[in-house]
Design a protein that fits this description.
heterodimer, A: mainly beta, 4-stranded antiparallel β-sheet, globular, B: 113 residues, mainly beta, 0% helix
């Protein structure tokens, strides 16, 4: 069974940093592109970032570019999101998501339960 | 960026009746090289992550009931629930995955009338 478990969320002050983790199991993690998606309280889904299978290429939403870094450790089956210079508008539940089929532009067929990041003084 | 716009924002339908949600993209999500529409639909219930319902604009994901269907191509798509069940109460999102950023529609909240 595919499982994605996020961790690392919490309360952080504006300007602070946080690192989110997503532990993957039940599939060959290194064979899949992975994504982060966020959802502000009571709001819709917003794509944040993507990383290819070997970490060689990454993409970001304009709203986080230069502040967030996506990475992965295929030996540990773990996806990361390093978040710096956090702002109040970054407050959201952050989901990691797996693409439907290994590599390529596909929708997300598996999602974690999410981890809440709250940016507030 | 491709902007995805859903209509309506909310919808109330009687049990057993048909529910229809529309999704329009600001540019075509049809990729000419493989003739596929890079359009997906998700269902999200309160307190849960989204669940993939449909991809390639018309392919139901594994285990999705056949009362869910989607039509359309290019820039205009429609998700139809043929006979609404109580468990279909949720927020529905369309998403384009043709190019990053993979944009979502704003969501349509579906309720029972």
């Amino acid at each position: 069974e595919v499982q994605l478990v996020e961790s690392g969320g919490g309360l952080v002050q504006p300007g602070g940093s946080l690192r989110l983790s997503c532990a993957a199991s039940g599939f060959t993690f290194s064979s899949y592109w992975m994504h982060w998606v966020r959802q502000a309280p009571g709001k819709g889904l917003v794509w944040v970032s993507r990383i290819l299978r070997d970490g060689s290429s990454t993409n970001y939403a304009d709203s986080v570019k230069g502040r967030f870094t996506i990475s992965r450790d295929n030996a540990k089956n773990t996806l990361y999101l390093h978040m710096n210079s956090l702002r109040a508008e970054d407050t959201a539940v952050y989901y990691c998501a797996r693409v439907l089929s290994g590599h390529g532009d596909y929708p997300f067929d598996s999602w974690g339960q999410g981890t809440l990041v709250t940016v507030s003084s | 960026d491709i902007v995805m716009t859903q209509s309506p924002d909310s919808l109330a339908v009687s049990l057993g009746e048909r529910a229809t949600i529309n999704c329009r993209s600001s540019q075509s999500v049809l990729y000419s090289s493989n003739n596929k529409n890079y359009l997906a639909w998700y269902q999200q219930k309160p307190g849960q992550p989204p669940k993939l319902l449909i991809y390639w604009a018309s392919t139901r994901d594994s285990g999705v009931p056949d009362r869910f269907s989607c039509s359309g191509s290019g820039t205009d798509f429609t998700l139809t629930i043929s006979s609404l069940q109580a468990e279909d109460v949720a927020v529905y999102y369309c998403q384009q995955y043709l190019i990053t950023p993979y944009t979502f529609g704003q969501g349509t909240k579906l309720e029972i009338k």
